[in-house]
Amino acid sequence: MYIIIIGCGRVGSQLALILAQEKHDIVVIDKDPNAFKSLGTSFNGVKLQGYGYDEEVLQRAHIERCDALAAVTDQDNANIMACEVASKLYKVPRVVARVFNPGSIGTFEELGLEYVFGTNVVAQTIMDKIVERHGRHLSVRGDVEVIEFIAGPKIENKRLIDIQIPNEFRICLVTRQGKSFIPWRETVLRDGDTLIAVVRSSVYSRVKPYMRSS
Q: Is the separation of the CB atoms in 77 and 13 below 8 Å?
């Protein structure tokens, strides 16, 4: 994949290094040229100085080739603008932003932007989001995530109690045909349900099969 990362702070640099190690083509954009030092000397991607919402900078990054873009600066407004430009102007298929200030979450949701929020945001979480695109990571607290995803065929006709993992994975809300309800242990789930759940990162791989792939 050809991936653009905006912001080369702690999260951005970790994300760039992980993705580069996975053999993706990476472009990192940051307004501060000194920020690129955190990538080290072995990073083989492209480094561009500038603002991630600047169309000229994005064109230099060859955004027309872009498969996914992650805006992970510590400025929510910059992340919003970058995602808006990428998704609406350049039609980048996969766009995700880091939310730094919880007060900005409402804005991201109103604009329909995919986001990851948490005081302990990890690069791996964002990588899963932009590369695998199984669900929306709504919040991260240590090793616990709140996620939203569309149920896949493997969940059809299973009861809640059949798939939940005590103390590690719990479905909290089901939306079916536009109506939302809080499920109980005997609730039968359907392919196509939109689910909000709490999951520990240690069991995320066990939950993935129940998610609809893009």
A: no
List, as one string, the DSSP characters of the chain.
-EEEEE--SHHHHHHHHHHHHTT-EEEEEES-GGGGGGG-SS--SEEEES-TT-HHHHHHTTGGG-SEEEE--S-HHHHHHHHHIIIIIS--SEEEEEE-SGGGHHHHHHTT--EEEBTT--HHHHHIIIII--EEEEEEETTEEEEEEEB-GGGTT-BHHHH-BTTTEEEEEEEETTEEE---TTPBP-TT-EEEEEEEGGGHHHHGGGBPP-
**CA distances, 109 to each of 49, 103, 106 (Å):** 29, 11, 5
Q: pTM higher than 0.90, yes or no?
A: no
β-sheet bridge partners, residue 198: 146, 170
Average pLDDT along the chain = 87
Query: Quick check: 39 and 65 in contact, CB under 8 A?
Result: no
Structural domains of the chain, with CATH = 2-133 (3.40.50.720), 146-210 (3.30.70.1450)
Q: Could you give the CA distance from residue 16 to residue 31 in angstroms, rounded to a whole number?
A: 16
**Residues 58-106: pLDDT tens digits?**
999 999 999 999 999 989 999 999 999 999 999 998 898 888 877 888 8
> In sequence order, what DSSP letters do the residues of 6-38 get, joined into one string?
E--SHHHHHHHHHHHHTT-EEEEEES-GGGGGG
